[in-house]
Structures are given as C-alpha cells and as structure tokens.
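Posting this for the archive.
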Amino acid sequence: MRDETVSRNYAETLFELARRNNAIEEFGAGLEAVAKQLDEEPRFRMFLETPRIDDDDRKALVRKVFSDALPTLVVNFVLVTIDKRRQRLLRSISSEYQALLDEHLGREHVDVTLARTPDEATRTVIAERLTKALGKKAIPHIRVKPEIIGGLIVRTTDTIFDGSVRRRLEGMRRRLLRAELPSGALGET
C-alpha cells in the first residue's frame, strides 16, 4: 500500500474513534502536537524512526513525553503505530486527520497572495468574504508577494482567482499587442 493510503486509513480510524468519544478536535490537537514534536525535534524523530532502537524503548519515551499532555487514546494510537512500524507516517497521518476534521467542521484552507502585509482588519474582511463566497468557514493563509503589484490571488482546493493588478496589466498588454490600428492612426499620410 502507498504511504498516502495507509496514512489516510490510520487517520480515518482515529477520527472514527474520536467521533465515538466526542473528542474530534481534542484528538486532532493531540496528534498535531505529536507531529509538531517530530518536526521541531530531529533527535526525537530519529529516535522514533530508527530501526535499530527497540520498540519497547520507543514506547517508553512516547509514554513519558505525551501521557500527561495528550488524551490516553491518542497516546495508545501512537503506540499502535510503533507496533505496526508506521511511526514514520505520524506527520502524514496528522495532516490527513486535519483534512478530515476540516471537512467535518465545514472549513476550507485558502491560500491568499497579497502585494503587502495586511492589517488585522483587512485579514478579517478577507476571511469573512471568502467564507461567504465559499459557503464554508474559510481559513486564509496569507502570503506576501510584492511582484503582484496590488489586488489579490486566491487559491482554494480546486479554484484559482487571480485578481492581481499584474495579471490585469498583462491582459491589457496582450490586448494592445493584438489590436489592429486603423491605417493613418500613426500619422501616416
């Protein structure tokens, strides 16, 4: 099986367990905390993923690090990934879980590119308008690219809206280059 499929299957299993326990957001936050620890602590990631280290030692460390901080079922889930030799997929499983959570809660992540860093009021307006346009709660991820000059570019899962000044100028340029000028328009006699 491909890693993406395996990660999705594990995420779906944990999501169903979380749903049965009325704790879908708590489980998501717990799994995200594990993934974040793996991203930020290379030694921790190496310890969990290196095949030479005994599974019992890995499990002991997971219990020590996470037992007081995470729901018990999330810790047990991480331990199962170790038993099944899938611990290297924990970050991917977390991403898949977050996608399931977003879908369940009616949220959509949207990439928004602006020419300048927006103030908080502008961020709020962008989020509100995107939420209204998409029909679900928009979570904008804002990037700044001065080369778009002005306006904004919005990317959702399946749509790109380019309202940048740069794109508009390029469109005008193309139209002007294609335009046919009437004879005598350039002062020819």
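The mean pLDDT is 92. Residues 3-103 form a domain with the Peroxidase; domain 1 fold (CATH 1.10.520.20).
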